[in-house]
Design a protein that fits this description.
Layout lengths: L11 H12 L3 H10 L7 E11 L4 E7 L8 E3 L10 H20 L15 E6 L40 H9 L1 H20 L3 H7 L1 E10 L5 E10 L14 H14 L2 E3 L11 E3 L5 E5 L11 H11 L17 H6 L4 H13 L22 E3 L7 H20 L12 E12 L3 H28 L11
Antiparallel strand pairs: 1-2, 1-3, 1-11, 4-6, 4-9, 5-6, 5-10, 7-8
Length: 470
Amino acid sequence: MTNSATPADLDPATLSDLLTVAGAPGFDRLNDQIRRTGGCAAPIRLTGGTKTLDSATRTVRYAYTTDGEPGGVLRVACGNRRATRCPACAWTYAGDTYHLIRAGLTGDPDKGTPHTVRDHPRVFTTLTAPSFGPVHNRPGTRPCRCGTAHPEDAAELGTPLDPDTYDYAGAVLWNNHASDLWRYFTIYLRREIAARAGLTQKAAREQSRLSFGKVAEYQRRGAVHFHAVIRFDGPEGPDTPPPSWATLQLLTDAIRAAAARARVTVPAAPDHGFGDDRVLHWGEQIDVQPIAAFGAGEDLTEQAVASYVAKYATKAAETTGTVDHPVGNKEALVLLGVPDHPRRLMEACMDLDTAYPARRLRAWAHMLGFRGHFSTKSRRYSTTLGALRQVRADYRAAQQRAALGLPDPDDHTDATVLVVAHWAYAGHGSTPGESWLAANIRRDLQHNREHARELRAELSDLEGDHAWLP
């Protein structure tokens, strides 16, 4: 097992609890439960059980109850996507996101997209926020505007050169309306495509479809920006080829034009110091890159795009120095030790909450105002996260049935089987000793997965198909 700490390195309370857990009856079963959750940091505890009945003979084929489990509960994974909350479940979420994005690039008939999508025009687009004031940065080989050549891990990167003149209100209002800006961008994108093709919007829709998958990421300055895969499809979606006019260049030009047109107006709030309406828009740094099929020349490959999106699907505002949970008041920010720049952004959310109560800025202060989904996709882009989770659950259920000699409930040759379940929530989380065990099991499993992925990469075919191993 790959451990970052041995029991001897633990604090006395955790060590004492670990010894209690290890010496308790059913430790092997507890260890098995933790392993089945992938080393979940905050497992959900359930009580109850299931019965598999033969409705014709009224006999019980199999019965399970948590009464015999350690502590009388069954532990299941929490499913939280945040890496700061649960690294184990975040790893699974990232893997699912990788497969979802990759299926829309390389094609996967089992996930709703044919392999021919590789021939469709598709780009990787980055839309950023505008400037709210100069910040410390690393502009290539030149020194920062402050005169310092900052190292990559410098704490001041992304913080304002002059905090007193930085537009904190504008920054959090922009984050809060970023999802609205994206919605307007997609509306204008379809209009720009139709105009460039010389068609009405109705005719353009009848001949082509747009599919996308996107993820939100926080810059060091605390502003949200979006990375999106945008793909041209035919009139019936990914199963049909796009029309001849749906070129990569037309898509690229339409994206840039649509981003320039998208606007969201925030009404004035004179009683709170905002006498004029604010017009929010995308920043000037708009990047549109073609995605290579089979690594055919371009730097940006399908593998790189899917990996990049998956990487940021489990991260949020805490990467800028905030916290990963709601905060009720400004005093708590000081007690939590939030650094100056993210603290001012969170305070701006709280100050603006009364001016724009419908935007719930105080509730989303820990997200620096952003209240949208971190990972979204259009309906026909590829599969869904729910479908991927269901496939995994069905596979594990089939394994369990095979081990117990039970029939498949979908097998109509044995249609009299009925499964009755009753579960009750009994809390969540782990004791300190259980948490130490879970962390070590998670690291052990992740190490094995990464090693398997490296072996797969070495043995991959000429396509470079290094799939993320869930």
